[in-house]
Amino acid sequence: MSETPLLVTVSGPPASGTSTLATRLADEFDLERLNGGDVFRTMAAECGMDLPEFSRLAETDDGIDEELDDRLEREIDAHLEGRRSSADESRGLLVESRLAGWHADGRATLAIGLVAPVAVRADRIDDRSETVAELRARERSEAERYRSYYGLEVDDLSVYDLVVNTHVLSPEGVFRTARTALEDVGES
Q1: β-bridge partners, 165
Q2: Exposed (0-12), middle (13-18) or buried (19+): which is 182, by Cβ within 10 Å?
Q3: Phi, psi of 5, deg, nearest 5
Q4: Lowest-confidence pick of 51-55, 61-65, 83-87, 118-122
């Protein structure tokens, strides 16, 4: 493996399986895990707001998404430059967020994108009572914000080294595919 610190990104739309895969890969490869959702929750707490209240604010305050993305990018930069205090404690860093592949900007050891049909993903999150129409509306809103903020098309999969359809493979199959890819990258 090269001297470059190991950086893995896992991205995908809601309920595509990013958390499941990120947890398994972090455990398997002894990676520190940075979750964009956790950072968002930390930001909400810093503002003294609960998550639903902060989420509503984020819909109208561009600065929240921008701050979240800045924090993730700073952590990626610090990791790659060897400035993270916990970098010595693990072999690398795994970043899980909707835009993690974009934040890594081609510097990831392996950038993984997960996809699944919207109807399948809506079924997976039925505990949140989000319908297919609501999920599509949320994703259109996110896509517009990312286009406006960064000029990127979130559905452009070319930023990923590996794209996996989590509807086609079981969670175990998704993990085995990603594990094999990461092992292979580590050998090159």
Answers
A1: 115
A2: buried
A3: -60, 140
A4: 83-87
How deeply is 57 buried, as exposed, middle or buried, from its count of CB atoms within 10 A (0-12, 13-18, 19+)?
Answer: middle
Q: Which residues of 97-128 are buried (b: 16+ CB within 10 A; e: fewer)?
A: bbbbbbbbeeebbbbbbbbbebeebbebeeee
- pLDDT value at 152 more than 80: yes
pLDDT band for 126, please (50, 70, 90 cuts): low
**CA–CA distance, 153 with 29 (Å, rounded to integer):** 30
Which residue, 166, 162, 155, is CA-closest to 182? 162
**φ, ψ dihedrals at 8, nearest 5°:** -120, 135
Whether the CB-CB separation of 75 and 97 falls below 8 Å is answered with no
